[in-house]
């Protein structure tokens, strides 16, 4: 049985992931969400949210870490996901679960569950774009 540390924006940042994976017990962890709007994020931004990508996607204790994206613009998410991969990300996690009103107001997170076709489009676009 694998134990995965849940992504928690504002709580499970890289410092917390380092601490908890050092203590042990977790097989994997996930970054806080990286919000995708109109811009293409630069390397420093990816490293701010997920410094693990510069360490072969491992926390300092050697536990794999996945980068999480949040957004609803499939094309822009794909461009950004490709950039994350270019900078070293090995796995992409898509946030369709955040219920926070401020996030949902901007068409991100759990509100997308009301639009399954859009979720399909996002997943299809990323799958077709990524290696
Ligand atoms: C403070 C907080 C922040 C969260 N941030 C994220 C997030 O960034 N991405 C995500 O996918 N889920 C996020 N979640 C959801 C959790 O990862 C988890 O799926 C949720 O808490 C359900 O698990 P539970 O029933 O054990 O609480 C967050 C939850 C909490 C409480």
Q: How do the helices and strands line up, and which of them pair or pack?
A:
Layout (H helix, E strand, L loop, with lengths): L3 E2 L8 H10 L4 E8 L7 H7 L15 E6 L3 H13 L5 E3 L6 H5 L10 H14 L2
Parallel strand pairs: 1-2, 2-3, 3-4
The structure holds flavin mononucleotide (FMN).
Describe this structure in words.
The structure is a single chain. By secondary structure, this protein is of the alpha/beta class. It has one domain: Aldolase class I (TIM Barrel), CATH 3.20.20.70. Helix content is 37%, strand content 15%. It is built from 5 helices and 4 strands, in the order βαβαβαβαα. The chain has a 4-stranded parallel beta sheet, with helices on one face. β3, α3 and β4 form a beta-alpha-beta unit. α3 packs parallel to α5. The longest helix is centred in the C-terminal third of the chain and has 14 residues. It starts with a strand and ends with a helix. The mean pLDDT is 96. Flavin mononucleotide binds next to β2.
Quick summary of this structure?
With 131 residues, this protein is of the alpha/beta class.
* CATH architecture annotation: Alpha-Beta Barrel
- How many helical elements? 5
Cα(first) to Cα(last) distance is: 28 Å
The spatial strand order of the largest sheet comes to 1-2-3-4
Number of strands: 4
Order of helices and strands: EHEHEHEHH
